[in-house]
Amino acid sequence: MTRIRALLAKEIADLRKNPALLAPAVLTGFISILLPFFVAIVVPYVAGERLSDSSDFKIALEMYKDQPSMRTLDPEGAIQAWIFQQYLIMLVLTPVAGSMSLAAYSVIGEKQARTLEPLLATPITTFELLAGKVAGSLLPALVLTAVCFGTYLLAVALIARAGVYTVLFTPRSLAVVFVLGPLAALAALQLAVCVSSRVNDARSAQQIGALIILPITGLLIAQLTGYVLLTVPVILFIGLALAGLNIGLMLIGIALFDRESILTRWK
Amino acid sequence: MLSASHLTRQFDDRVAVQDVSFDLAPGEIFALLGPNGAGKTTTLRMLAGLIEPTSGRVDVHGEPMSRRNASRLRGRIGFLTEAPGLWDRLTVRQNLVTYARLHGLPSPASAVDTALELFDIRDRARDQAAQLSKGLKQRVALARTLLHRPEVVLLDEPTSGLDPESARDVRELVLRLRDERRAVLLSTHNLDEVERVANRVAVLRTRLIAVDTPAALRARLFGARLQIALVPPAEPFAALLRRSGHGDVRAEDGMLSIAVDDAAASAPAIVRRLVEAGAQIRAVVPEEPPLEEVYLRLLQEEQPA
Predict the structure, then answer these.
(1) Which of A94, A172, A233, B72 is most buried, with most CB under 10 Å away?
(2) Mean pLDDT over residues A78-93, rounded?
(3) How near does any CA of chain B get to the CA of A116, in Å?
(4) What is the pLDDT of residue A66?
(5) Among A252-266, B169-183, B198-212, where is mean pLDDT lowest?
């Protein structure tokens, strides 16, 4: 653990010296926060129509009429709450997008800067190296997710109908952000670090690691169209699957990491 | 302390290192010479536990290095890589503290303070590595290599690209390591440096061409010679020595060069004979061809016909 912590501290110190690396993450977070407000507040305001007048949102009222937390809301508030809950899954993308470039660059970056060989000459094991690299990308992403979630809540409390923000405090919402988000991010980052240790171009790692965005986007669409309802059991099931995937990815990462090839063949 | 036995390393069809064996003793500076592509870095990487030999083995303190124990044994070796390999955005102190922690030192901060003091870089501790000159970067890299006080130190081109003053500092450090009874393996192209510090020299071109002390290599290739500076002319005294049984005597200007079995043992008798014959002697020294000549001769002899 000491060596993982040492590498993590180095990664964080490095990031603090170059915070611009997190710009894509901040941008993704900003868009994730902005988009539901555009749908739930700006568009109805500009169009001069209420959401509850539109037949498109009948499904939202149907789905929410049984939820105890929604009973205190008027129809407009209930639809807003539904929109804000659905778009919450967008926040899951924030840590993935945020730290993908960090993770993709992790091993290939060390090689290109000629810092990898001295690092490998220490007693660090492959597991410690990969764990330190993944943690170095994941930690800033999680901090960013927490900040984005806090901002989202505050904005909903200030701008949306009164009481809407309370539905974002349900176990379901919190599980989406703080269980699914980190686990999906971890899977994406591990994939990127694995690829980063096999290719000699950071861009390839970034492209392949970004594939994790596809199932998350699919989940968002399935949820919006009513095909999948992210209840707590569904979220826990997906969480367990992601945890299994993460363990598998770590084992694959260790097996694929070829010190010799990295040192002797990469230029 | 460190032993290489029949090390061979192959990359696909290309043999980079073949059947290399040598031992490295405490308090010894062992220089590894060879042209570019001779396998020096590959040898160092095998010794440092970074890559595995295709065949043969490395022992550290009698313990054979394997995939299982390589991580632990790497903690007993300090490897200065060809490039300093510092994290440019981090400060000198942050670079060193990270390595102190990676080596599991009990008190990283104080180990770093000691290293900063020892390498005279305390005043640059807060500077970003990117801001340092090449010489200073190399000094920080050396400090990093020695942070955990390794018993075996492997140095790959430690003075490459350094100005004379920085190179001298590095040489002094290498000598200090020898005085501390550490085993130092120095891979370099700088023959002058080897001449000044190395106890033994190995010449590598995929396989080892020669391993010995510089003096023994000279004697083997050129034989022992005595050089005597006279007030010219020297030729009459060369003829005198030839008549008295010295078969190989060369005279040039005021200089005599005489082939002998042992320069130190032969000198008194030769000097006496010359003085008796009226020679005015200015200096007497054992003749030592530069290591460069030894090295080039070895490579030449090894060249396939």
Answers:
(1) A94
(2) 80
(3) 7
(4) 64
(5) A252-266
The answer on pLDDT for A73 being more than 80 is no
Comparing A40-49, A119-128, B3-12, B102-111, which segment has the lowest mean pLDDT?
A: A40-49
A10:B90 CB<8 A: yes
Cβ-based neighbours of B6, under 8 Å, separated by 6 or more? B19, B20, B21, B55, B56, B57
Q: Angle at CA A181, nearest 5°, toward A177 and A184?
A: 160
The answer to whether residues B143 and B123 touch, using CB atoms and an 8 Å cutoff, is no
* pLDDT per residue as tens digits for the range A166-218: 877 778 778 878 888 888 888 888 887 777 777 767 677 667 766 766 776 77
Contact B297, B221 (CB under 8 A): yes
Task: State whether B89 and A263 contact (CB < 8 Å).
Answer: no
Both tokens of residue B276?
């008796």
B216 reaches A (C-beta below 8 A): no
pLDDT in tens, B101-147: 999 999 999 999 998 988 888 899 999 999 998 888 988 999 999 99
Q: Distance (Å, rounded) from C-alpha B64 to C-alpha B57? A: 7
- Which string of DSSP letters, residue by residue, matches A203-246? HHHHHHHGGGHHHHHHHHHHHHTTS----HHHHHHHHHHHHHHH
Q: What digits encode the pLDDT tens for the residues B262-271?
A: 878 888 999 9
Chain B interface, best mutation among A117, A263, A266, by max B CB count within 10 A: A117
pLDDT at A89 over 60: yes
Inter-chain contacts counted by CB atoms under 8 A, chains A and B: 83
The CA-based angle B268-B270-B271, given to 5 degrees, is 65
The residue of chain B with its CA nearest to that of A261 is B51
Q: Which of A6, A14, A260 lies nearest to residue B90, judging by beta carbons?
A: A14
Query: Is B37 an interface residue toward A (CB < 8 Å)?
Result: no
According to DSSP H, which parts of B63-190 are helical?
A: 70-74, 92-102, 108-118, 134-146, 164-179
- φ/ψ bin of B239: left (φ > 0), alpha (ψ from -120 to 50), beta (otherwise): alpha
> Do β-strands B281-287 and B224-230 pair in parallel, antiparallel, or remain unpaired?
antiparallel
Closest by Cβ to A118, choosing from B72, B75, B144 = B144
Confirm or reject contact between A7 and chain B (CB < 8 A).
Answer: yes
In this prediction the ipTM stands at 0.81
Locate A207 and state its tokens: 């492209």
What is the three-class DSSP state of A2?
helix
* Lookup: tokens for B245: 């049984």
Q: Tell me which of B81, B82, B126 to substitute to probe the interface with A (most A C-beta atoms closer than 10 Å).
A: B81
**How many Å apart are CA B30 and CA B28, to the nearest integer?**
6
Q: Is B39 on the interface with A (CB under 8 A)?
A: no
Question: CB distance from B50 to chain A under 8 Å?
Answer: yes
